[in-house]
Amino acid sequence: MAPDISNYSLLFLIIFVLIPLSLSYRYQLGMNKDIVWSTIRGTAQLFFIGYLLNVLFDLRAIIGVPIMVGAMILIASLHARNKGQGLPYVFPAILIGLLLIEASVLALWLIFDMISFKPSEVIPMSGMVIGNSMVAMGLALERIKSEFKENNGRLLAALSLGASPRQAAQIIIQKTLRASLIPNVDGLKTIGLVQLPGMMTGMILGGIEPVMAIKYQLIISISIFSSVSLSAIFITLVVYRFFFNKQAQLVPIKEGQSQ
């Protein structure tokens, strides 16, 4: 069992914050306020969620799990839609995608008895799936917007030669999916070699046998890999259509608030 970390010990984490802060000041990066604010906000959020989880863990699973998982999906959708500014219906597309993927992953966990339907198990593991899916969707949205902007001429040429929107955008779809999946593919290649994953490390520090910790880490790592793949594919195949109208013509995307 890992020893309890006192609040006094946590205060010394300020040393780690001073390092990027001093680098920002030395090289005039203009990130001093962002570093301080991010540190304060992140610390406050973690303590808040810690106390909130204590409350949720005491509730019945049928109440606590939907509340927290629903909140995580909503917040993740609101955050990811910022990457798709200017695209119509991007928020509902992300929200539906995250709901479907989380429901599918959770169902498989429960059906094959990988975890129990308890807030203490479902909420942390679902959070990792939702968080990584959110990042994948954000990367896909940024990449597809960039690709359509850079390849405008090629797309127009393909459409003028009789290509359908899907045929014209095929290369862009492939590039977007590849860019979204590469980080997770590389991470899975080096898992356990370059670093011990967070979940596994936490369980070992909590006194769980390493082999048991590895089993849980495999469940979440493969689940994340699958959910990230599905997230990128889902949002890409939905969003690319928004760049074309019903007459199969390119539609200019204006940067601004997403719907």
UniProtKB/TrEMBL annotation:
Any Pfam family the entry gives: UPF0014
Keyword Nucleotide-binding: no
Main location (coarse class): membrane
Subcellular localization(s) per the UniProt record: Membrane
GO cellular component, one term: plasma membrane
Membrane topology: Multi-pass membrane protein
Record field: transmembrane: 6-23, 59-78, 90-111, 123-141, 218-243
Keywords of this entry: Membrane, Transmembrane, Transmembrane helix
Family (UniProt): Belongs to the UPF0014 family.
Protein name: Putative ABC transport system permease protein
Origin species: Sediminibacillus albus
